[in-house]
């Protein structure tokens, strides 16, 4: 099949979160299954710098954007043979900051225009109107930034099938009515069955309403977003489209995330020889100026420092352990300034016990996965989560809240699962510091039982969350949609 895969970020060209990892790994898995997959994303300055050799492919004038002739730049995704197309619209994408925010942390005020243009370009590519003589069978769009593309394509009878993946329903692409007018969309779309959402325009609602099929990134999250608590006001629509909604768990690219061949860590290791993991722990302790204590459990966390990720729960639950000298903690991430300040104050109170890196570092994320004993993910909700799956492969026991993809990938070390040998981590229910503290106490008790801990580590390292199975599920979905599309 010919598959156009559209995303606002793709690793290593641009990354703010797990969307970038998925947008690189799933296309690679589809390519290994011998499908003709091509990537399209905006041409941010970093993307151009990271992409290597690029050549002009086409120049396109898009409806609604008379001042922005768009160039398509062609290359390949680094480390692969997957064709890559970058949407070069300098007025929209050649900016400092990340894909969505300026350097001051505030959203770009014209994000509706930026990603409206991106959607128009996806539409042109899908209809083979971009001058590249290639027409996909399926267009796979990801998150709100591509949400208008299925809307545009729904207006054409002869078109490819469309798939829209929700990576996080909390981010919806909401804009005022003026944004709808500025995009010069058909007036009939301003309707509660169209793009209107409580008086605003919702990009993600467009994808959910108009795509042929909706996927999300774990079976549990697919169920959860149909409920009021995590539906973010779209649960009614998602229930209406329930027959076209599927949860497919994200996979892991083990070429990038495997301690046996990880180029970022100080010593490689595997289930047959764990000696390298101890050296990775010492490396992490040295980097963050922590006391070098082998028998001291080292907790780790990588991710956005926001309430969704439960970082406030982690800081509260971990503080008594740090104060008592019962554990160390390393956090790599950034986000809510208040949470960043709380963590910074804790580093001052407990020198040698807590390490903090404000910002994201791919290399540090790998070093933390290898050097920590326990990875803590107390998310209030988690569509899929990748770090718990990385942790399993690295023998870093995950402590997770039982929600979304965390519930689908971590088997709690309760007595029954320990006895059967199925346990891979610790999970807990309530999103409270007390529930997390209880889970951490269970983890530390297991940590000090050396044979039991080793068994838990090795069971986790044996889990297979590679993309092969998930990619096959997507291929089956694509084939079904292609066969049922009217010719």
Question: Please, could you describe this protein's structure?
Answer:
The chain has 487 residues and is of the alpha/beta class. It folds into 2 domains: 2-251 and 468-484, Rossmann fold (3-Layer(aba) Sandwich); 275-463, Rossmann fold (3-Layer(aba) Sandwich). It contains 19 helices and 18 strands. The chain has helices at residues 18-32, 45-51, 90-93, 111-126, 148-154, 177-182, 203-210, 219-224, 235-240, 275-287, 311-323, 337-349, 362-371, 387-393, 404-409, 415-420, 433-447, 450-461, 467-484, and strands spanning 2-6, 36-42, 55-60, 70-76, 83-88, 138-142, 161-166, 174-175, 196-197, 200-202, 213-216, 245-247, 298-302, 328-333, 354-358, 374-377, 397-401, 426-428. The strands form 3 sheets. The chain has a 9-stranded mixed sheet with strand order 3-4-5-2-1-6-7-11-12, with helices on both faces. Helix 10 (275-287) crosses helix 13. It is globular and about 65 Å long. The two termini are 16 Å apart. The model has no long low-confidence stretch (mean pLDDT 96).
